[in-house]
Amino acid sequence: MDAVLLISGAAGFIGSQMVRTALAQGYRVVGLDKLTYAGSVANVDGLPADRFRLVVGDIADLELVRGMLAEVQPASVLNLAAETHVDRSIAGPDAFVETNVVGTLHLLRASLDYYRTLTGDRRSRFRYVQMSTDEVYGSLGEAGRFSEDSSYAPRSPYASSKAGGDHLVAAWVHTYGLPAVVTHCSNNYGPRQHPEKLIPHMITRALAGLPLPVYGTGENVRDWIHVEDHCDGVLAAMRQGTVGGHYCFGGGNEWRNIDLVHRLCDALDVLKPRADRHSYRRQIAFVDDRPGHDFRYSIDFSRATRELGFAPKVDFADGLAATVRWYLDNGGEGRKAAEESR
Questions:
Q1: DSSP code of 75?
Q2: Of the candidates 237, 188, 186, which has an alpha carbon nearest to the alpha carbon of residue 79?
Q3: Quick one: which of 152, 148, 129 has its CA closest to 248?
Q4: I want to staple 338 with a disulfide (CB 3.0 to 4.6 A). Which of 9, 137, 150, 204 is the partner?
Q5: Structural domain harbouring 181
Q6: Residue 151 DSSP one-character state
Q7: Options 158, 189, 280, 297, the catalytic residue
Q8: Residue 278: inside a domain, yes or no?
Q9: Which DSSP state fits 98?
Q10: Does 29 have pLDDT greater than 70?
């Protein structure tokens, strides 16, 4: 296989892993990234130059994207570019609408123009993949799981902007005939994640000797999937997914936030004990809950298993331990970010 994929958001957390997974599966990749605060060239340093190239630019720049598609002639386009942090969306929703809605609109327009130039096998195999989130479905109570048949009920500016992008994709499928699929995932974890997210946030603040802020009483529940499993699933949806279809990917690992923080503290107690030998749990500090904080997310990924052969492979305990070790080995930038967040 020597097909080229165009991946937007390629220098972000999930995007940089998607590049690695695609390269491992035999693809060549051209990445596009605006390099905002959450994207970093360091995330893709060391990748083979003959198989990967990063272009710095914005998916909302229609002419740039059109030019890239004409030059690269990709087999498929994967849109991973997004503003993703709920807290930031509450404080400043404009950037989320600009990237997640307007950016998606322009990428869809350029992709449709490009698709219409294709013929034969290249046309029949082309896919536009929109990577979305389980948060577009809203919030669950104590029971139940989200699936591809769940109704959209976004409750944060972030989730609403992602839902807007998803609906644009559906329109481009049904109105213009663009062959696209949409994927949804639960919370990702793994290396190279920006320290604003829960797991790296707690690790970097713990190492910096800072309080570990837990919203409310820590009872909110999230399902966690390792980023490598997620990327495997998205590429399977690209190759095998039904045009216009949605596919959900989860890890089957539901944890209350407070229990997950306890696990992280316990791992750090073993791998990097505090100088005073007390547990990092001493640094936990409960703070006022996030406005509109969704109680629980959980994913039913049985359709992805049936239709794509998807199954998460990374054991949560092993994946979490490896993630903690990665931040210990690559902690300088994270600790600086933790210091700046005080």
A1: S
A2: 237
A3: 148
A4: 204
A5: 4-193+227-252+293-314
A6: P
A7: 158
A8: no
A9: I
A10: yes
In a domain, 260, yes or no: no
On whether the pTM is more than 0.90, the answer is yes
Cα–Cα distance between 27 and 108 in angstroms, integer? Answer: 22
135 is catalytic: yes
CATH number at residue 167: 3.40.50.720
**Band (1; pLDDT cuts 50, 70, 90):** low
Q: Which of 33, 58, 134, 229 is catalytic?
A: 134
134 is catalytic: yes
User: Hey, what are 176's tokens?
Assistant: 């213009």
Instruction: For residue range 37-82, list pLDDT tens digits in order.
Output: 889 999 999 999 999 999 999 999 999 999 999 999 999 999 999 9
Q: Is the residue at 122 inside a domain?
A: yes
Active site residue 158: yes
Options 135, 166, 228, 232, the catalytic residue: 135
What dihedral do alpha carbons 316, 52, 24, 116 form, nearest 10°? Answer: 100
Q: Are 157 and 96 in contact (CB under 8 A)?
A: yes
Rounded Cα distance between 146 and 297, Å, is 7
Q: Judge whether 57 and 36 are in contact, CB under 8 Å.
A: no
- Report the DSSP beta bridge partners of residue 12: none
DSSP 39-69: --GGGGTTS-TTTEEEEE--TT-HHHHHHHH
- Taking the CB of residue 42, how many other CB atoms lie within 10 A of it? 12
Q: Report which secondary-structure segment, H or E, holds 206.
A: helix 198-207
- Which pLDDT score is estimated for 244? 98
Count how many Cα atoms sit within 13 Å of the Cα of residue 322 in the half-sphere of its side chain. Answer: 13
In a domain, 126, yes or no: yes
Instruction: Specify the number of domains making up the chain.
Output: 1
> What pLDDT, on a 0 to 100 scale, did the predictor assign at position 2?
79
State the DSSP string of 262-278.
HHHHHHHHHHS--TT--
Alpha-carbon gap, residue 99 to 34, rounded angstroms:
10
